[in-house]
């Protein structure tokens, strides 16, 4: 089978395809024949910042091709989605059953990778803000896979005003169509009327303006893998708080909550409250092109690799 890996000092083509034997699932693991693989900014950052050969992965979806010892609730041929951070960019990937779930009838693998992980991050970040009915919510990187679902999620869960912050006019059009009430372009000095909640998927230099966008008592949820520094005085001056959110920490520490949220996402999809947008389907062998789309910040919604 083919898999894509990242190699330091591998010349200009740092992502390349190699032929390897299919992996064997271990106890509690599924071998998934991938039909779709999500490409995310954290994986792109890994390549950009990495200094060692690195397996690439994230969310995958496809049919179960083999099951390891002790697996229950999954059978050969089932369409599933799950997380695989070790060689997910491949024709076949190993997923632990705790990180896997069935794709419901009527949905396909591409939809599953666009909805489940990004939707979990969007939902989890919103929840972390302890939202109150009528809150005004600002979402940064609002045209990203996570951001576009966060806009929809906040709209569907009682936000009085959802402000989408993006870096280009093209993205502004896109987020308006995703349901944002207002749009701001960054970097910009003014983000309009203060908001109760900021969901920040950018981090770095944007954290300062993001905190300054908060109303008194506001909450900023920082969920970007880019990290960044928050000035405690800026929080104090607004009686505001900053909260970190990482989906992997919930998946590891609160698996029942993770599983419940995952099921709820499909209900929201069926009810028309969440509608993931697919920016591009890229062949697996052209993974470098998929990374380039995200690197150039040109994606509107999810970038998906198809083996
Ligand atoms: N905490 C968690 O559990 C978790 C899990 C997955 C993802 N995330 C985070 O969620 C955010 C969105 O992820 P995603 O996979 O949905 O993103 P994505 O679809 O790959 O889109 C990334 C977007 O981030 C913005 N961006 C800001 N700085 C960037 C940079 N230096 N390089 C490239 N893009 C940059 C761009 O939008 P603009 O041009 O509009 O700024 C870009 O379009 C990321 O920060 C990611 O680290 C967090």
From TrEMBL:
GO terms for cellular component: cytosol. It holds the Pfam family ADH_N. Residues 10-305 form the Enoyl reductase (ER) domain. Keywords: NADP, Oxidoreductase. It comes from the Bacteria. One of its GO terms (molecular function) is NADPH binding. SMART domains: PKS_ER (SM00829). InterPro entries: ADH-like_C, ADH-like_N, ER, GroES-like_sf, NAD(P)-bd_dom_sf. Gene3D superfamilies: Medium-chain alcohol dehydrogenases, catalytic domain (3.90.180.10), NAD(P)-binding Rossmann-like Domain (3.40.50.720). This is Zinc-binding dehydrogenase. It comes from Actinospica durhamensis. The lineage of its organism: Bacteria, Bacillati, Actinomycetota, Actinomycetes, Catenulisporales.
């Amino acid at each position: 089978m083919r898999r894509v890996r990242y190699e330091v000092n591998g010349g200009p083509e740092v992502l390349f395809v190699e032929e390897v034997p299919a992996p064997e699932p271990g106890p509690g693991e599924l071998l998934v024949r991938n039909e779709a693989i999500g490409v995310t900014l954290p994986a792109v950052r890994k390549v950009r910042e990495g200094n060692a050969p690195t397996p690439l992965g994230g969310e995958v979806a496809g049919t179960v091709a083999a099951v390891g010892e002790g697996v229950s609730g999954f059978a050969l041929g089932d369409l599933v989605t799950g997380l695989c951070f070790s060689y997910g960019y491949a024709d076949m990937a190993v997923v632990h059953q705790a990180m896997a779930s069935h794709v419901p009838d009527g949905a396909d693998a591409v939809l599953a990778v666009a909805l489940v992980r990004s939707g979990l991050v969007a939902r989890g970040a919103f929840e972390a803000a302890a939202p109150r009915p009528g809150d005004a919510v600002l979402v940064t990187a609002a045209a990203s896979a996570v951001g576009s679902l966060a806009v929809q999620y906040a709209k569907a869960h009682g936000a009085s005003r959802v402000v989408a912050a993006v870096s280009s006019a093209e993205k502004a059009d896109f987020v308006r169509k995703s349901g944002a009430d207002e749009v701001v372009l960054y970097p910009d000095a003014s983000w309009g009327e203060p908001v109760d909640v900021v969901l920040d998927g950018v981090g770095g230099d944007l954290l300062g303006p993001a905190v300054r966008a908060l109303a008194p008592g506001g909450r900023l949820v920082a969920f970007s893998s880019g990290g960044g520094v928050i000035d405690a005085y800026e929080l104090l001056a607004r009686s505001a708080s900053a909260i970190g959110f990482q989906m992997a920490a919930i998946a590891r520490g609160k698996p029942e909550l993770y599983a419940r949220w995952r099921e709820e996402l499909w209900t929201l999809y069926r009810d028309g409250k969440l509608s993931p947008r697919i920016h591009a389907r890229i062949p697996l062998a052209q993974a470098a092109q998929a990374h380039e789309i995200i690197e150039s910040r040109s994606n509107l919604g999810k970038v998906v690799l198809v083996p």
